[in-house]
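Example record

The entry below shows one chain as it appears in the dataset: sequence first, then structure tokens.
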Amino acid sequence: MKLKRIVHDKRPSISSSAVGPSSTGRQGLDHKKSVTFDDGIKPGVETAASSAAAVAATNIMSSFKIRNETDTDQVSLFKPETLTTQELEERIRQLKDPNEPPVEFRIHNNLTVISKIVDNFDCYLNRNGGHCWIFSTRGLCTVAQDELIFIFDENIHNANDVISDLLIHIHQIYIDATKGSFVRHLGLSLSSNSTTFLGSSTANGFLYISDPTSLYNLFPEAPYIFGILIHRLELPTAQCFPMRLLLRLSYEYQSYPWPLFSIINRDSMFSDTQHTIMSLLCDFRAFTYVLPTIRGLTISIGIQGSVSIRIPRNRHDDMLKSLEQSSPHALSFGIMNVNRQMHSKHLVTIQNSTDQQYETRICSSLDSNNEQIMIGGNFLVVNASLRSRDSPSSSPLDTQNSGSFSLHNNLNAKVNAIEDGIMLQIDGDALKVLKQCLKERKDYAILAKARSIGVEEQKDSTNEIVIKKSSSEQLVEFLWVDDDNDINRGVRSPIDYFPMDGIRNSRIHYAGQRSSLFRLRWTDLFFIQCHLNNNESFDPTRLADSLAKAFTQALTPFIDMLVEAKYRKLGLRVTIDRENASYLAGSNGEQLSAFFLSQLDDHMIPIVMKASDNVSRTAPSLVLELIFYLLD
């Protein structure tokens, strides 16, 4: 294809030629103006806490946030079919028959659910002779919602209720997404039925977990999340500290770090919240406050009992928020994920059925490496319960002297495992020093007497793994580590399948422009390369807004041709540079045809050239990618 090229005096040339993202596209995300990424980071702001709930650029124009009532009107008419006994038996036969294709449940034109009962998906159910009943959505991505996967035990007595209730539940999630309300990692979606859900009086909704390492041919294109069914009695724990519930289920079903399946009529893992330390850290009744969690945070326990808290540098805002919410005499925060490369074992807490007390256990991976010396913890509580005259030895780490630090002789700090976390007891002065170090993003270390740390495992009288108690002097350290970039794993560009792993993005709630039959909807904005100087007046989110409008205006008259070409997911990648500006549009791993590119040229070239003129000559290239979906 011969590409158009326009040259102006001393202006950069621009063409629709391919300019693939370089390796530097994964870097340079420290500073962007007026944007909050989908993982909650507000880049370029070091002192103010950012809102993790913001999922789009703050100044994306309101015209892209207008709700289109036709979406809701269309899906509100959906009512799942009720199958007769004979029809249900035939449907179950199709679901089980490996020679039959997956069964498709159609909610509406833009949302379907694929289902199949399989015996070759690697999970606890199949390993114990059972089968997995998988439900996988197709189409939630068109409303900026991650696709959903639900996996159940096949031994379900009321399959009609399961199918009907689940489809209605998915339909409601779609409607909520059109209104700007989404479910994400560690989020909840609760049943609106107060009596039964999925044919069970104890099921209450789903807790969602992101696990892009789990792959199967029935799963949708990334990003997707798994829905784990929760018991009604588990709702307070799921809302206040969901990682505790997930790890408890992991221990129950030998599925480290969490089970991806649900058993509908199982017993509750936790029956009350009165006997746990979490009752002091969370409001289990009104949910006015919960335990702060920090994405990418890890809490590690060494084989000898040392404790290491690693905090990603790009989560400084989250740490500031935890400090602001803490009391003068305490500090607490928890994890949001399990680092499987670092921890093949993890602390978990179970509730004793006799006296309802919470006890500490260890869950581990089936292929756990015995040489791996770190055990994961779920949360940390720092309590200033010691008197000042018993002040422990503590000091910020001297990062300019190989991480060494000085210690005094008066050693009275205490550290021990409590339930599925760690408690550190120090005095008020030491807590002030610790908080100041965390606020200034400095490393900190303290020596403490270790008690009941998980240094070894032993069996109790019931042959369960428990913690072997020990008492020794151990180091507790708070370390600021490299940025957490564990985002968008498995996501690929529709233009050339370029991997988006580690690249930040914003979700866009956008109704889109309409033709008589179809819509073109903008759902995602990826910042492949975006590292502007502090004095730059250029705003990439306003540029993205203009690009999205131009893209939809150019292609809307030809939507029927896009449908015929099977272009359902489209990408627009733009490079802004004073010397070499370009754009690229594609779908299904290839560029759009010459006809569509020629239609785009008249709309895209003026915008890209003007944007290139507005950046300084010393500014690095800006590379953005916008994702669009073509809807019925």
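Notes for this example: Residues 78-253 form one domain. The chain has a mean pLDDT of 80.
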